[in-house]
Every structure is written in C-alpha cells, then in structure tokens.
What we know:
This is SURF1-like protein. By secondary structure, the protein is an alpha/beta fold. Helices cover 40% and strands 20% of the residues. The protein is built from 4 helices and 8 strands. It has a 5-stranded mixed β-barrel with strand order 2-4-5-8-6. A hairpin with a 4-residue loop joins strand 4 (99-109) and strand 5 (114-123). Helix 1 runs antiparallel to helix 4. The relative contact order is 0.17.
Amino acid sequence: MYRFLLSRQWVILTLLALVLIPVMVELGFWQFHRHEHRVAQNQLIAGNVKAKPKPVGELTSPGHTVPRADFWRAATATGTFDTAHEVVVRRRTSADDQVGFHVLTPLDLTGGGTVLVNRGWVAFGTDQQAFPHVPAPPKGEVTITGRLKADETTSGSGIKDLEGLPPRHVMLINSAQQSRLLGRPVLGGYLELTAPVPPGGSPEVIPAPDSESIGAHMAYAVQWWLFAAGVPVGWVVLVRRERRERDAAAAGAAQDAAEAAEAERSATASSA
C-alpha cells in the first residue's frame, strides 16, 4: 500500500524532511536566544543610564577593560580638556545617518589621570583629509557627565584600524592606542558625553542607546518553529495524496482492463 515510500524520490524527500525539522527548530532557538539577549541588553542599558552617576575613577583605571555590566554606566569626571591632543574618529554617523567624525578629546582629571571623552559628531569639511572645524570645549576646570563605553577593537567592532591616516585622525576609540600617542596613562574605555550639552549643538551629542525596541527575533523564532511543525504535516499530506493518486490510477487501470476483457469476449461471441 505504501511501498512507493521506498522509491528513490520518496526516500530523498523523507530524508530532506528529517533534516529540515531539527534545522528549523535550531534556527528558532537561535532567534529566541537573540530575543533574550536583546531583552537583557535593554535592561542593562536602562538600568545603567538611569543609575546615579559615579566618579569615573571608581569605574575604570589605566589598562582596565570595561566589563559588560558597566557598559553605558553613567559617570562623572572633573578636569581640563586637552585640545592640543584632540583627534577625530573617521567614518562615524550622526543621528540622521550622515557620515562625518566623532570628536575625541582627552580630559586631564583633577587629582591625576586622563580619560578620553567622545564629545560628539561633526560633519566633514570640504577636505576629508584635513582636520575639521571643531568647536572648542569649555576652558578651565569642568565637570562632565557621560556614558562609560569599552575600548573599541577591530575584532569587536569590525572596523579596520587603517594605517597612513592624516594627522590627528583615527579609526578606533581605544585608550591604549591614545595612551601611546599621549605618552601618559589613560583610563580604560572612554566617556560618551551627555552633559553639559555643547552650545549651538556642535559637536552633536550622541543619542542615548535604544533600550525599548526588542526587534522581531521572537516572531522569527515562532515562525521557524511553525515551519518545523509544518514539515511532517506537509509530508503526511503529500503521502496521502500520492496514495490516492496511485489508488485512482490502479482502479482506472483495472477498469480499463475489465472493459478490454469484456470487449474481447463480446468480439469472440460475435465471430462465433
């Protein structure tokens, strides 16, 4: 009755179904884990951004790797901006996706030490190889608030650290790299400036990270699991349809054979 399942076509189709089911289930769990990761990240962002700011020296130190638990942690720093060693970070986008620079300025801390401050975004000038016009930060001692971020690396960001860049241009925000250029220790990670907001809106302060949207990962997970559940259902439907078609074909062949036999008997009787 179901011997056709042993045919080459049906063996291949069955094996394909058996492979697709676990693959689709695994893809569903992959999307589900991405959903869980996004939810956890949103909770981390929301908690750290809203937390009471701590002095940056309590959160990091020279050579320190900022742990994930401290990403976006609100921090304060008091010191004097060192504009003589200010650099710009190439190929960075604004809030409306225009390409330009991020302005990275060392802040020499009162009491010792240096922390890097990403003061925000500025547009390209007429010459992208030149140092752009950057509004100066406040002079003298200033207290700032920012979000603590980890050092950027090529492996972590996907940004290639190019050589032969114009003077005072960099590709990555990296405290170890800047420490070598400055010739003095720099606190690990950097601060993404949130206050005070630069007068005139330039540099353009970097927007707060999104802690609300969770994406469509959960919907994709359910979709993959429904696909996985649909594979055996589809297989059964195809098997039943194949059996009906074969039964119908066999019945038709039997009827044709019977009609042919009857016609032959009638012809024999007539000739007799």
